[in-house]
Amino acid sequence: MTTKPVNLVLVGAGRMGSHHAENIAFNISNANLFGIFDQNLEGAKALGEKLGCEFITDNIDEIVNHPNIDGVVIAAPARFHANLSKYFLEHGKAVFCEKPAGLTLAEIEETSAAAEAAGLPYQIGFNRRWDRAFADAKAKIQEGAIGSPQQLRSLTRDPGPWGGDPFKIPTWTIFYETLIHDFDTLLWLNEDANVTEVRAIADALVRPDAKSHGHLDVATVTLRFDNGAIAVAEANFCAMYGYDVRAEVLGSLGMLQMGDVRKTNMTCYDKDGAKDDTWRADSHIFASGYTAQIRAFADAIQSGKQTGPNGRDAHRALAISLACIESIESGKEVQTNI
Predict the structure, then answer these.
(1) Where does the Gfo/Idh/MocA-like oxidoreductase N-terminal domain lie (predicted)?
(2) Is the pTM of this model over 0.85?
(3) In terms of C-beta density within 10 A (0-12 exposed, 13-18 middle, 19 or more buried), how is residue 332 classed?
(4) Which pLDDT does position 2 carry in this prediction?
(5) What is the pLDDT of residues 180-196, one digit of tens each?
């Protein structure tokens, strides 16, 4: 095991990639921001100048051929995740990949096989596992504090007003990129249980004018597990009161709740009533989780032991997303073994 900080290259300098880059540059002691890759070279240069990073490229081979680069953090558009991950792993670079790890199960299987063959970390960006409240809840479940899980719930409500263009967002994004976090959370909290049934309903209630285009911005999913537990996952693209991510597990001996739309437990009371400040961005509500997951990725490179979510976790979460799409298209529940 080495304690030398690892050299990481950001792949994809958009909103989330920029946040990862800032974390690596300023908040993670066991990693260096060695470089930035983006097809928009000017954007990459601007980010590099801001963060003091000089290795800027739009040529992927400059990364794989550089002997001093240990790994990459992939935050490119989802459709590129699997191919990029597989290519870097095959060329000796450890991979941290934002979710979803791929858009087909076959893609993730091939990438996981590449990681196994290379003996390199392949970590997926399911950041809720690294949030303190979610991690504490997981520990309580493992120690038996609430008995056997019976009912679970996970929700993601993006802050409003929603400013996205529904005519440019890929169909099924609500399952591929939003609810996939909730699916991973539910699988992780109900460990060692398999999903046997999936039922999804969805609609375009935020932007109903885009429904005929295939746009969906509200969804509710029910899951049945082989240990008897029943779970609900829900998502909405526009919660006007703030960014709301919560989960709950009701067990035979008690209950756990995690997540809070409020920034703190401070409430302001004035002539207009009671007020709470609420979260407005994912990079804020999970600030510590985003840092912890990259730190764990760097630890995995240093030690050779991965503790973060891997290809199998990505495969299971995507399998539920795909079952949701099948359920929407058929109007029926889908039998699974996930």
Answers:
(1) 7-126
(2) yes
(3) exposed
(4) 73
(5) 999 999 999 999 999 99
